[in-house]
Fold each of these.
Amino acid sequence: MPYLIALGKRGLRILRATIWLVCLCLLAGCKEDGDAAVPLTRVKAVTTEIVEFAPTVTLTGVIAAVVQTDLSFRLGGKIAKRLVDIGDHVAKDQLLARLDPEEQEAELVSARAGVSSAEALLRQTTASFERQKGLLTLGNTTRRDYDQAEAAMRSAQAQLNQAHAELTLAENQLAYTELHADADGVITALRAEAGQVVGQAQPIYTLARDGPRDAVFNMHEWGLANLAADHGIVVTLVSDPAVRALGDVREIAPAVDPDTQTVRVKVGLRESPRAMALGALVNGTGPMHPHKVVLLPWGALFEIDGRPAVWAVDPRSKVVSLKPITILRFTRDRIAVSDGLAAGETVVSAGVQLLRRGQQVEIVAEAGR
């Protein structure tokens, strides 16, 4: 107290100003320490590079015959017997199934009787014509009776011809009760059983003919449009990849399957290994046409208004902004960007969920692609 009295009023003012100055310095120091305590968001990033992108596409399909036919009876009836099953190898003209022939056999008997009747009538009219011919030579008959005898003979001949035609038709109808293979091949489908009544031309069996084989695949339109198949498609057996063959695109379905949104493609095998049996699972691999793209890791993908986008980092301010992109293709660990990015840009590759527009970031790892 005596010390303060000795200072006087001027000394008190100086002391008071000094105390305020110290307090302000302390407050300023605390504020600076507080600002330094808030770190920037740390992200990983990559530098974009435009590269040639020509991946191979691999699809799984099945081996099928180039020619498959549905076998059916030429007339309707009840199946009396079925002689082969699915998977059986059959030879050309081999009997596969038989209809109940009772009706056709009755028609054949009737046709044969008609032929016999027509033959008897022809013999009778021919004999009458020969008598009239001899009498006309001697002048003992009229021209009218001669002409009538000749007309009756010709009519009997026509009836005999018709009877023979009906007999042939009846014989064919009886033959149609048997179903025969039209070529060597394998039965791949069965659509009727013994005892079932079937209609004319109703498919009973499906026969895959021996000979060339196809590998059949269902392909997306994008893959179909970008497939470079000029040098062939490599086809390998799923169960044994060492079994392989080369094939060429032989047929493309004209329409997209509405259920799978894919197009059926048939690849004709140049040679068919024995292990590639009908129905065997195979993989088909072919190159795609090259494209200029930027490859980014999956972690870089974001979205803006439902469209794909990425976070681009300004190289000077380290501030991020969203850039919409066009994705050409997704691979196992990358995305191929065909539009929206140029070479040399910095793109966030990890930590995109923590970002907002105009945010400043700290890049902790940057790698060129």
Amino acid sequence: MAIKLLSEKHKLYIKEGALNRSMLRKAVERAIDRKTQRDFYIFSPPGLGKTYTCNQVFSQKNIVPVEIKGNTSLFGFVCDLASIMSRRDPKDHIFLFIDDCDNLLLNVDSVNTLKIGLDENKLVYNKQLAAQYNQLEEWQQEDLDMFRKTGRNGVEIPLNNLTIIWCSNYRLKDQTSSANAKSDNAYVKSINEEALRRRLNARDYDVQGETLWGWIADCVLNETPPNMKSATKQQLQQIVVWMFDNWARCKEHNISYAEKLYEEMQLDPVDYLTAWEFDYLINE
């Protein structure tokens, strides 16, 4: 079976992808090195290795971040933050890594609360706690109680000596988005997101098409994912070139997709191209 190799055109796209990934890495490094600067918000489409890159930079700098991960409500985020801040040594600088918590950004109140929190350097949650509070574990209640004000609802959690690095699959709205909002509710949410964006050091890697392919190919070829470590250089090239040739029909556009193709290549070294054609492309 003939193995397709990289053409000069492919190499140009990979070079562009490598540049984008290098900018992502440098953004994380700057966020870690400049503790006094604004918190960082990093966006790219899902499955491009944002989390992997962040963790790699943390490891290289011998830093263990405190992590909040996965879908969470604003109240859940407040509880997590209360536990983190109540158990810390105030003299220590903390790196808070928020990963895949995109659900926090889908609600106007949540976005506004985060925006005000960055302005005032404290996260204020003013809602009644009774029902939600009673469902918490005792240790969680104790953590929240440290930040409750006598005679007042809610909690106030200081954000001193804290750097937040946020990786997200959700792109915060900007001025263009606000101008193009089609309803009053969409406009209100958009301007709040725009305000939150101004308070963060936002980095958008909104890569698409050949640039997105170049990003994935650079990762696969030059920083091989763990599940592909046993692949030969020719096999890796075959995978990324096949993705390029079939880009419009690929069911996914991410690094995990390349890993799935390699799994098929291992399972059926003779007829893997047939499996790729029937199982991993959109039928026309």
Amino acid sequence: MPDRPLRVAIVGAGYFGQFHYDAWSRMPEVEIAAIVVRNPDAAAETAAKWGGAGAPLPVFSDAATMMEAIRPEIIDITAPPEAHLATIRAVASHAPWIVCQKPFCGTLEAAREAMTLADRHGARVAIHENIRFQPWNRAAKALIDAGAIGAPWQVTFRLRPGDGQGARAYLDRQPYFQTMPRLLVHETAVHWIDTFRYFLGETSGVYASLARLNPVIAGEDAGIILFDFEGGGRGLFDGNRLSDHVAENRRRTMGEMWIEGPGGTLRLDGEGRLWLRPFGENTETRQDFAWKDHLFGGDCVHLCSRHILDAWLADAEPETAGAAYLRNQEIEEAIYRSAKTGVRIAV
């Protein structure tokens, strides 16, 4: 435990950023010290909600000015990807720890530049890749490691959030989705690029077929991606943002998953329940694990932030350290190349 709470400044005050404010507010080792947004007036509600002792948080319109005034130990960037590189450029010389939402910097080239800047100044960067921290994914990984299904040979995820139909698709929550030239893979499937690697190890090749089904958006909203893994396993990501799945809250898991091996199959349903069916049997058994149905994805935003902070406090690298995370973006680029060329791409 630090001698005093570490100051965290949060860049952005949008829809998903609110989950970050909640996550940091629940950690005794830190205090939220400032907000950075382009339009300070837009952050008034957020500043009032998360301020301490009845006083609103100080709000700044640019990160450099905030750094001079506050000198936080942690910067958490929740702003859209086009703001990531400029923010890291402004804070890297003074902020020892930087957390950044995905898609990291928007492009692979910008992400590499951001990491070069951070390395030059000795700043540590972690990407807030929270899907691998969803409690059902942690439980599935523990079962895999315990040999519950043997060495897994395939993982399949069917993304079906059902939020992409019609002229108002995404407008109520994240309206910039409509204008992103790359949507399904860049913004969403990158989560499962990372999670598949978490389950089966390093990716060796990909094949993809992508499509735009809703004509009001700019990017792709459906697609099939096949993964090969160095250990011989395979993966299938089947995404369609227009279709839905059986769930009380279709954003809880965003879809359904199967992990198969010689000893049986693990199945994730839309309620966050994990089931094990041994090979040759017809009955599934529900696997118990603790989780909290709080905000998004089983409280995975808090779980991810907690993991990152604990790693840094222990002078260790978090699972989603920036340099290692670039591999996910390299795989993403290979997926888009495959969709464009119609061939498998080695990575």
Amino acid sequence: MKAIRRRYFYAVAFVSFEIVPWGLIGLLRSVFRPRLAADASQALAGALALILVGMPMLLIHSMPIQ
């Protein structure tokens, strides 16, 4: 059972670790490449959602690993 739990924590931490940079990339793209107002706000909202969900998930699942 410990092996399954450990794999779960590593898997979720890895996915969260991948989500946060994609959110940062999307945030930088929306800042440096202005689009139409509707597209820009939707891209910004998506990037911020990735960061705001991915960061706590990364922290919550990486703490027990350490």
